[in-house]
Amino acid sequence: MKTSIPESWSHIILPEFKKEYFKELTSFVTTEYKKNTCYPEKKDIFAAFNWSSFNDTKVVIIGQDPYHGPNQANGLCFSVKDDIKHPPSLINIFKELETDLNISYPESGNLERWAKQGVLLLNATLTVKAHEAGSHQKKGWETFTDTVISKISEEKEGVIFLLWGGFAKKKSKLIDTKKHHILTSGHPSPLSANRGYWFGNKHFSAANTILKDSGKAQVEW
């Protein structure tokens, strides 16, 4: 699992690489990728950090697992590669985007365009075995990504955390609410959205209002 970490994140990430839990995680992930089909591609495991620098990160969206179907995951939570059919959760995200900001439904499900603007799209678990959701959970990834969230909270100010669903909401304990903004809602998955826990949360316009009031550039969602 060799990778180059962007300079802006190195002070957070490189110390984790040296810890025992991460060495065990690396061994597990390396074996899994050799024996099985896993996602995302190795080069994209840390993509969230490649697209959004530490200094530029102003919004954090937390997902759970990468997509586990062929050619979907690109290392950014809720995002798929260009020309890939949009998964149900992403469809609901885009539907909310339509009604919240009165913009047309996006053609591409690739959210690199968000990441380039300082939106960190971070899954709690960064790898998964094909067709087996949650297969790489509780192997060490959560320790790693919790550290990233905690360090963002500790070292930055005014970051907007969008916590969608019960799993993401649990991460609020890692965030200093006196320094940062937390917006919560149900998960965009059909199960949650169809029960009325997702649509109408207006998180995209709310985040931009906070950014505008803080003198920061708004995100072109």
Describe the protein.
The protein is of the alpha/beta class and about 220 residues long. It is built from 9 helices and 6 strands; from the N terminus they run H-H-E-H-E-H-H-E-E-H-E-H-E-H-H. The protein has helices at about 5-15, 20-35, 45-50, 90-100, 110-115, 140-155, 165-170, 190-195, 205-215; strands spanning about 40, 60-65, 120-125, 130, 160-165, 180-185. A 4-stranded parallel β-sheet has the order 3-2-5-6. A two-stranded antiparallel ribbon has the order 1-4. Helix 7 links the parallel strand 5 and strand 6. The protein is globular and about 45 Å long.
| Average pLDDT taken over every residue | 96
Structural shape:
globular
Q: Please compute the radius of gyration using only Cα atoms.
A: 17 Å
* Strand order within the widest beta sheet: 3-2-5-6
Per DSSP E runs of 2 or more residues, the count of β-strands stands at 6
Question: What percent of residues adopt helix (DSSP H or I)?
Answer: 25-40%
**Uncertain residue ranges:** none
Amino- and carboxy-terminal Cα gap: 32 Å
Counted by DSSP, the helix tally is 9
Derived structural class: alpha/beta
Name the beta content range: 5-15%
- Describe the largest sheet: 4 strands, parallel
Element string (H = helix, E = strand): HHEHEHHEEHEHEHH
